[in-house]
Design brief:
The protein is mostly helical. The chain has 2 domains: 54-264, no CATH class; 274-460, Tetratricopeptide repeat domain (Serine Threonine Protein Phosphatase 5, Tetratricopeptide repeat), CATH 1.25.40. The protein is 60% helix and 4% strand. It contains 22 helices and 5 strands. It has helices spanning 12-31, 58-71, 81-94, 126-129, 135-150, 163-173, 183-193, 197-213, 219-231, 243-246, 250-264, 274-286, 297-306, 310-323, 328-340, 346-356, 361-373, 377-390, 395-404, 411-424, 428-437, 444-460; strands at 54-55, 103-107, 114-117, 121-125, 161-162. The chain is globular and about 60 Å long.
Length: 462
C-alpha cells in the first residue's frame, strides 16, 4: 500500500490502528485530558504550578467521566441505573438534543446531590434517590440538570476549564474533596461550581418545558423543592456538598416554578408507580438495613429478590400476584424468583408474565436463564436474542450471549456481545480492547456494529 492510499475500514490494519488510537485517547483522559492549547512551560521559581491544559466542550465531560470511573461506584443494574437512564432519555428527547450523546449515571454516595457536566454527563447520587417520592420528582431533577447542559452553565468561564479544575470538581462533587492536594484549590473550585441565580432561573424555565414535552407531571419538581427545604437547615460535615451548595435561591425558585405550573396547568397525570417501586427496591437491596420505602407486599418481596433472599422473596411475591393477578411486574418478579430457585413452576409463570407484557425484555431474559439452566442452549440463545431486540442495553443478556457464542462460527459475535456488556457496565477501555480484537471475517453487519461502538466510545468516552 503506497503513501497516500486509504486503508479500508474492514482491513485488520485499520482496526489495529483505530484501537491503538482510541485506547490512547481513553488513557489520556484518565491521566491528563486532551488540549487544544500547549501546556505552560518554563515557570518562574516559586510561581504556582501550571493548572494544566484548557478543556473545551465534550472534552470536559469525557475527562470528568474518566476520573470518576477510576474511583467511584456506579449502579449499572436494570432496576436503578437503567430506570434513571430511561427517564433521562425521555427528557433529552424533549429537550431536542441527541439522546445518545447524553449519559445518566447513579453514583453510590449518601449525599443528596445531583449535577451536570458539560457534554451531557448527568450524575445522581443514590442518597438523593432515596429521598425522592416518585419518578416525577426524579424527572424534575433530570430536566433541570439537562437544562444546565443545554444552556451552557457550569464553570463561570468555560473557556478556562483546566485539568486541575476538573480534578478538584470531581473530588468535591463526588464527595472526596480530601483527595485534592491543595485545600485552597478545592475551595476555589467549589466557588466556581455554584450556579448563579440567573442560571437557576433559566434552568428552571427550560426544565419545566422539557417535563411538559416529555409527558411528565411538572409538579414533581415542586415536590423536589420540598425535599430540598428539609435539608436546607442541616449541618453538614466539612467538605460535604449537597444540591443546595451548587443550586442557590431555593425559596425564589419554589415560588417561580409554582407560578409557571399554575399558568400552564398540571400537565399529564402521574405515571404508573411500578418502575419507581423497582428502583426503590433496587436501592434497598444495597442498603445496610435493607429498609424499603413504603409497606407494599411487592416492594418488600422485590427488595428481597434483589438481595438474593429468595426464601423470603417468594411468599411475598406470591402474595403480590394473588393481590394483583394481572400485574406484569409482579408476575415477572415471581417468575424470576422461581427460575433462580430452579422450581418447575417457573415455566408456567414465565408464560403468564410474557402474556401480561409481551414486550418485557427481562421476561425473555429469564426465559433464557430457565433454558440455560436446563441445558437447552438453542432455546436459551433465542430467548436472549429476543431480550436484546427489545432492550439493547440489557447488559446480562449480552453477557450470556457472549458465553453461548464463545465457540463455533459465531464466536466473533460472542466477542461483540462481550464488548457490549463491558461498555454497559462502564468498562470502556476493556470494551475498546475486545472490539479491536474481533475479526468479522467479512460479516458486514458485524463490522458496522464494531465501527459504531468504536466511534461512539471515541466520541463519548463511555
Amino acid at each position: 500500500m503506497g503513501l497516500g492510499e486509504s486503508v479500508p475500514i474492514g482491513n485488520p490494519l485499520f482496526r489495529c490502528l483505530r484501537m491503538t488510537c482510541l485506547l490512547a485517547v481513553l488513557a489520556g483522559c484518565a491521566s491528563g485530558p486532551v488540549s487544544d492549547e500547549p501546556a505552560a512551560t518554563d515557570a518562574e521559581p516559586g510561581s504556582p504550578p501550571p493548572s494544566g491544559p484548557v478543556l473545551r466542550g465534550k472534552e470536559i465531560g469525557k475527562s470528568f467521566m474518566a476520573s470518576a470511573l477510576g474511583g467511584y461506584r456506579f449502579y449499572t443494574d436494570e432496576d436503578v441505573g437503567a430506570t434513571v437512564r430511561a427517564i433521562g432519555h425521555d427528557i433529552a428527547v424533549a429537550a431536542g438534543v441527541d439522546p445518545d450523546s447524553y449519559h445518566f449515571f447513579v453514583v453510590e454516595n449518601p449525599q443528596a446531590n445531583a449535577f451536570a457536566i458539560p457534554g451531557g454527563y448527568i450524575f445522581v447520587f443514590d442518597g438523593l434517590l432515596r429521598r425522592l417520592g416518585d419518578e416525577e420528582e426524579l424527572a424534575g431533577v433530570l430536566a433541570h440538570e439537562v437544562a444546565h447542559v443545554t444552556h451552557g452553565h457550569f464553570f463561570k468561564d468555560q473557556k478556562k476549564v483546566t485539568a486541575v479544575d476538573l480534578m478538584a470538581a470531581a473530588a468535591i462533587l463526588l464527595g472526596r474533596s480530601e483527595s485534592v492536594a491543595a485545600v485552597s484549590l478545592a475551595g476555589a473550585a467549589s466557588m466556581q461550581l455554584a450556579y448563579s441565580r440567573d442560571n437557576e432561573r433559566e434552568a428552571d424555565v427550560a426544565g419545566i418545558s422539557y417535563l411538559y414535552d416529555a409527558d411528565y407531571a411538572p409538579g414533581g419538581l415542586v415536590r423536589f423543592f420540598g425535599v430540598l427545604r428539609q435539608q436546607a437547615h442541616l449541618v453538614l460535615p466539612k467538605n460535604q456538598y449537597t444540591y443546595l451548595s451548587t443550586h442557590p435561591g431555593l425559596e425564589e425558585r419554589y415560588d417561580r416554578v409554582e407560578r409557571m405550573i399554575e399558568r400552564r396547568g398540571e400537565g399529564p397525570a402521574p405515571r404508573d408507580p411500578g418502575r419507581w417501586q423497582r428502583l426503590q427496591a433496587g436501592l434497598a437491596a444495597r442498603a445496610v438495613d435493607g429498609r424499603v420505602p413504603g409497606e407494599g407486599t411487592f416492594e418488600k418481596g422485590y427488595a428481597a429478590l434483589r438481595a438474593a433472599r429468595l426464601s423470603r422473596a417468594r411468599p411475598l411475591l406470591e402474595q403480590a400476584v394473588r393481590e394483583s393477578p394481572e400485574s406484569a411486574m409482579a408476575l415477572a418478579a415471581l417468575a424470576e424468583c422461581l427460575v433462580r430457585q430452579e422450581d418447575a413452576a417457573a415455566a408456567g409463570m414465565l408464560e403468564r408474565a410474557q402474556a401480561a407484557d409481551p414486550q418485557g425484555a427481562s421476561v425473555h431474559f429469564w426465559q433464557g436463564e430457565w433454558h440455560r439452566r436446563r441445558g437447552e442452549a438453542d432455546l436459551a440463545l433465542a430467548a436472549y436474542e429476543r431480550a436484546i431486540a427489545l432492550d439493547d442495553e440489557l447488559s446480562m443478556a449480552h453477557f450470556r450471549l457472549s458465553q453461548l457464542l464463545a465457540e463455533g462460527p459465531r464466536a466473533p459475535w460472542g466477542r461483540f456481545h462481550l464488548a457490549r456488556y463491558l461498555r454497559l457496565t462502564l468498562k470502556p477501555g476493556q470494551a475498546v480492547q475486545v472490539l479491536g480484537e474481533i475479526d468479522p471475517a467479512g460479516d458486514e453487519v458485524l463490522q458496522r456494529g464494531i465501527n459504531h461502538q468504536l466511534q461512539t466510545l471515541e466520541e463519548e468516552g463511555v
